């Protein structure tokens, strides 16, 4: 660069500093403060997660000092509050998985079908109206879903199945599935919308119908996003609390019958956390042992979702 241009540029910068020295000093201060502030915000979330894990691990360790871990993981009876006490988590685990499987059987087909419609069939005006309405379901409080299951879905199930009780896994599972439909639909639709238009146009040029394009081109291309949305919905259903507490009951049964009353891990935590259990007792420690089990399951599911998304990701 010529010397006269450099001198002109330096003179302009010096004139700017001379005209507004306070602005330059303020910018310099902000440049120093903002990285520290942003780092603090980032580290807060990390420290919070570490605090939760340390608390769970500490209390769980104290619990397993009294109760053998083999009895906890492989025991078939859960009765920590009524003598003779038993701490086998399999009934809680089976109840949680039963609710989750029912919820996924409801949410995944309906959510995927809704995503295909919004991505491939719906006009832009319809998409702008329907998708926000679907996502409103995610903002409904879960306790409202619980009363909906207890007052509307359960009577319908009882009218179909005479053996169904007031509290049953089928009612809770259906409503949990309704709750997670927006998650499956929204994430799947985003994955399908990211598929390049050129793939669709190429299929149409070969004579494929719109339905064939959706199932044979778009869905396989967006497979990683669809599977990740299903896994995340699965983990969301496992951690649901209020719906299963109100509609599924509080009977820890080791059963696969969805018409019976069951108890999930989250429902047990709610039951024991009401304040009647003495601090430091074995019953109190069982809350953290169940919570740690739930944390490990959801953590592994999130890792699985990330692995699937990376493994089957299509880049265009």
Write a compact overview of the structure shown.
The protein is an all-alpha fold and 316 residues long.
Overall description:
The chain has helices at 3-19, 21-64, 69-74, 90-121, 124-136, 142-160, 169-193, 197-205, 210-221, 223-238, 242-247, 265-272, 282-311; strands spanning 78-79, 86-87. It is built from 13 helices and two strands; from the N terminus they run H-H-H-E-E-H-H-H-H-H-H-H-H-H-H. It has 316 residues and is an all-alpha fold. Strands 1-2 form a two-stranded antiparallel ribbon. It folds into two domains: 3-65; 78-311, MetI-like (MetI-like fold). Strand 1 and strand 2 form a beta hairpin.
Full CATH superfamily name of the largest domain: MetI-like
Count of structural domains:
2
Number of strands: 2
Q: Major beta sheet, specifics? A: 2 strands, antiparallel
The side-by-side strand order for the widest beta sheet comes to 1-2
Q: Percent of residues in helical segments?
A: over 70%
Classify the secondary structure makeup into a structural class: mainly alpha
Work out the radius of gyration.
27 Å
CATH architectural grouping of the largest domain: Orthogonal Bundle
Could you tell me how far the N terminus lies from the C terminus, measured between alpha carbons in angstroms? 41 Å
The proportion of residues in beta strands is under 5%
Q: Look at the structure and give the mean pLDDT.
A: 83
- What's the CATH topology label of the largest domain? MetI-like fold
Question: CATH class of the largest domain, anyone?
Answer: Mainly Alpha
Gross geometry: globular
As residue ranges, the low-confidence spans are 1-6
Output the helix-strand order: HHHEEHHHHHHHHHH
How many individual helices? 13
